[in-house]
Amino acid sequence: MSRLSAKSLLRCLMMVCLVLFATATPALAKTKFKVAWSIYVGWMPWPYAEESGILKKWADAHNIEIELVQMDYVASIEAYVAGQVDACVMTNMEMLNMPAASGIDSTALIIGDYSNGNDALLVRDGLTAKTIKGQEISLVELTVSHYLLNRFLEKNNMKEKDVRVINTSDSDIGPIFLSNDSQKAVVTWNPIVMQIEQHPGITKLFSSADVPGEIIDLMAVNTKTLKKNPALGKALVGAWYEVMSVMSRRGADADKALGTMAAQAESSLVEFKSQLKTTAMFYTADAAVQYASGPEIKKNMDYVRQFCFRHGLLGEGAESADVVGIQYPDGSVQGDKRNVNFRFDVSYMKMAAEGKLKR
Amino acid sequence: MKFLSMHAKFGPVTTALLSASLFVLCVAAYFTASHIRHQENPKDKIMPTIGKMWKGVENTAFKEDRKGEYRLWVDTWASAKRLGYSTLLLVLAVLLGLHMGLYPFFEAVFYRFILFFDKVPALALLPILFIIFGLGELSKVMLILLGVFPTIALDTYLRAKAVPREQIIKGRTLGAGSAKITYGVVLPQIMPDVLNTIRLNFKAMVLFLIAGESLAATAGLGYRIFVVRRYIAMEIIIPYVLWMSLLAFVADLLVRLWIKKRYAWYQAH
Predict the structure, then answer these.
(1) Of the CATH numbers 1.10.3720.10, 1.20.1260.10, 1.20.1730.10, 2.40.40.10, which one belongs to the domain with range B71-268?
(2) What is the CATH code of the structural domain delimited by A32-114+215-353?
(3) Which of B5, B15, B43 has the most A C-beta neighbours within 10 Å, making it the best mutation to test the interface with A?
(4) Which of A18, A110, A222, A280 is deepest in the core (most CB within 10 A)?
(5) In which family does this protein belong, per the annotation (chain A) (predicted)?
(6) What is the pLDDT of residues B15-68, one digit of tens each?
(7) Does B65 touch chain A (CB under 8 A)?
(8) B233 contacts in A (CB within 8 Å)?
(9) Per-residue DSSP letters for A82-150?
(10) Is A319's Cβ below 8 Å from some Cβ in B?
């Protein structure tokens, strides 16, 4: 009778465990980087930078390789938090409650734009701030839509309890709202806002243009990676502002660039341009540096972090909005100074503004 | 390498150890990786430690959340209701399949339609479902039904068809009417097989449930998993997934026990 002893079985198992995890050590020196992006009007310059060769040119100048990966929004941030990509586009809110709250020290390398109408609360039947009480409101919970609704309610002396929030997937929120007349209110983002608004009987009750500068779109980079590899920061910033200068030029060149971006965002040039109108792009590095260094951003970040805390986004155990430290360009820290995981760093954008980046 | 031979014999302890080995390996792999990640970053959320997961369970199951709800139970109840209604409605699938198998009229009307319907990926029709049935409970129940109804109906049909013709004739000669043959002769003997099919489709039902809840909901196990993903609360997601698996396993077990008890003859079959 052949018997496998329990002891040798255990030994075998331990070996397998060892082999599995011996390979898990990360490499140190890097020359190849992965950057994730997802479709949103303010981020379309990235795929354009790649397609036009601008990104490769800047990467070559700094002797590195940059690979852009397109993903779904939440999945892209999850990949960033898991360390699968080195940098990723996201809003200030997700940067705070996904990487920063998970202990991934992240730097806002580029302040690209803020939403200036791209996020909106749309209603039918002429609903107003007074009559919205008790209504069902569809939105993707815990996103900037949810944040926007809170800001709207706050400004009208209401609380979230005064309405009924229904979590609805962003992939179907548009058609669902349009086909159900019983749904009176929806909060969503572009291009969905644009599609819904085109229908008769729909009005815009509130939008991010009413709270300008609060929903900021950023390029977040892992702080450790950036410190070890300043070349990555320089190449990304350099490429970004070269695209910005192409976009802000008028005429055929700019239209061609915008056309490429529109195609990649699966919208028409007209639609894309109209979305750009509700996006406050910082076309120059100087403007972005000024916004990031001003007093307004601290006040806006405070709104955002208080919202995140109230909804448990900073972790169920968080005692206050102060658990994550947010560092500003002047060196000041909002929140826990010993746990700074969110940094606004304008040094790279400054180099671009002063024309000090190697091409 | 004798232990790999066809004639290898293992004692009860070794068998138990062998059966446990893959479970142990998975759990060990998880906690080793989690440990490594936590050494690099004590705040890691992607692979929470057992302590963090326990806290997640505590927070969702035994403490009121900001709305004053015990989330895990609220979610479990919401999902269980949806699954319960769908399971009850599957009775219709069984009846339809039974009639298709025995009555040429039902077969002519429904068989090809259901066969085609079975191949339609229900998930792709989600937006249409929400437009027809609204955002409430109905659309979620309908999605689960659309997903598994045809499978159950077709399976019942095949099994009813497979009942030997002689038996039905025998029933007739003994004086049974159509109703007696349908519900007294055929149904009872295909029932254990049908129950097995329903049991094996629990997994599909749970998948459809999650899909429906991810689209529009205010409570439910799938709903919660999708919402807390927004702040990478794996310490909640992992216990939720384990909880769902456990519930599905228990439901499966109950059906198996029921078959064993009610249809004792089936074991020998």
Answers:
(1) 1.10.3720.10
(2) 3.40.190.10
(3) B43
(4) A110
(5) Belongs to the bacterial solute-binding protein SsuA/TauA family.
(6) 999 999 999 999 999 999 999 999 988 888 889 999 889 988 988 888 887 777
(7) yes
(8) 316
(9) TTSSSEEEEEHHHHHHTTGGGT--EEEEEEEEEESSSEEEEEETT--TTT-TT-EEEE-TTSHHHHHHH
(10) no
